[in-house]
């Protein structure tokens, strides 16, 4: 019945431990997470700027291509038919190359973003694990302050270890 209706002492210690963990996370965990997210956001923004720059380059190539066509029209009427066919080929090729380059840059940006996300997650997990171990260490030190508690813990751990070895043999 005590599991369903915990007493005041248990609730008090649960609140104290929760407050300690919350304080530690607020002090060290959340600023690290926030800085990682801001860094990732900046990298995404830079990648989008690079993609816009590629689009502007593509527009510049199309303008340059139109100038070349105007010169060809002035030179000869006969070359106009050949230049028109050539123009279509060059335009299609330029679009294909620009599309390929844009796709490559976007793929690289996505790969970089994914790698950064994985790195940030791994870092956050590592930091949370370190904090959890430190909190557990402090709690265990406090609980095992006397020799009888230490002996009981050692006996229990030895017994559990011997039970784990039996299935392996």
Topology readout:
Layout: H1 8-75, H2 78-143, H3 147-168
Describe the structure.
By secondary structure, the chain is mostly helical. Helices cover 92% and strands 0% of the residues. The chain is built from three helices and no strands. The radius of gyration is 33 Å and the shape is rod-shaped.
Question: In a nutshell, what does this entry contain?
Answer:
It is built from 3 helices and no strands. The chain has helices at residues 8-75, 78-143, 147-168.
Number of strand elements: 0
* Cα-to-Cα separation, first versus last residue: 40 Å
Q: What's the helix count?
A: 3
Task: Output mean pLDDT.
Answer: 84
Low-confidence runs: none
The dominant shape is rod-shaped
Strand content: under 5%
Tell me the helix content. over 70%
**CA-atom Rg in angstroms:** 33 Å
Helix/sheet category: mainly alpha
Order of helices and strands: HHH
Characterize the largest beta sheet: strand count, sense, and whether it forms a barrel. none
What would the keywords be for this entry?
3 helices; 169 residues; mainly alpha
């Amino acid at each position: 019945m005590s599991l369903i209706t915990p007493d005041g002492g248990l609730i008090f210690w649960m609140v104290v431990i929760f407050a300690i963990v919350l304080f530690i996370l607020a002090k060290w965990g959340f600023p690290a997470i926030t800085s990682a997210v801001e860094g990732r956001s900046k990298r995404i923004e830079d990648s989008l700027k690079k993609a816009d720059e590629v689009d502007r380059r593509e527009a510049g190539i199309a303008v340059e291509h139109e100038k070349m066509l105007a010169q060809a029209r002035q030179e000869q009427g006969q070359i106009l038919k050949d230049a028109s066919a050539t123009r279509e080929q060059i335009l299609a090729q330029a679009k294909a190359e620009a599309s390929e380059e844009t796709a490559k840059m976007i793929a690289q940006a996505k790969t970089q973003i994914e790698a950064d996300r994985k790195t940030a997650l791994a870092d956050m997990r590592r930091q949370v694990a370190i904090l959890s171990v430190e909190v557990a260490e402090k709690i265990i030190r406090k609980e095992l302050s006397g020799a009888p508690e230490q002996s009981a813990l050692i006996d229990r751990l030895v017994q559990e270890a011997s039970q784990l070895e039996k299935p392996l043999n």
